[in-house]
Amino acid sequence: MSEKLPANAVVVESALRELGATGEIVVLPEKAPTAATAAAQLGCEVGAIANSLIFDADGAPLLVLTSGAHRVDVELIARTAGVAKVRRATPEFVRTATGQPIGGVAPVGHPAPVRTLVDNWLSKHEVVWAAGGHPLTVFPTTFDELVRITGGTPVDVE
Predict the structure, then answer these.
(1) Residue 12: inside a domain, yes or no?
(2) How many distinct structural domains can be found in the chain?
(3) From CA 67, how far away is CA 129, in angstroms rounded?
């Protein structure tokens, strides 16, 4: 399967295997720029989409894996992360921190570990879909597996 995947998705697939994750990367028929479009293509609830949002937290990357049903409260996240300021990262900042483009940032497969917060709301879904390193790729996982493979901290994001 790897030879048919975009290069970034191959990196993510390898990371998933190394981490003992069970899901296989799926290539979507078209880009899914929003959680709603991803959910429509996958036939799941929008809340089961794990949006990967990279923030600039006092100059360091912070990955927030949030339910597609939520908006992140950046002030709450800043307090939770113990930083002065959290703001949306630029595309360049995201690419440097993750090696992946906005719209396809996976929870794993980055050049270096990225501090990660995982939305507790995702635990309400038996299957959660996360980005696979490219805007056309996703993989199924669970809340517990996301926390485990990212070393993430479960939090409320709104």
Answers:
(1) yes
(2) 1
(3) 10
**Tokens, residue 137:** 């790729």
* Integer Cα distance of 99 and 81 in angstroms: 23
Q: Is residue 1 part of a domain?
A: no
Q: Which of 38, 47, 62, 31 is nearest to 153 (CA)?
A: 62
CATH code: domain of residue 97? 3.90.960.10
Mean pLDDT computed over every residue of the chain: 95
Helix (H) or strand (E) holding 100: none
The domain of 124 spans: 7-155
Which residue(s) pair with 130 in the sheet?
50, 139
- Cut 0.70: pTM above it: yes
Q: What secondary structure does DSSP assign to 60-74, as a single string?
A: EEEEEEEETT----H
Which residues of the chain are under the pLDDT cut of 70?
1-3
CB 128 within 8 A of CB 5: no
Within a domain: residue 103?
A: yes
What are the tokens at 107? 């929870």
By the 8 A CB rule, do 148 and 32 touch? no
Which H/E stretch holds residue 130? strand 128-131
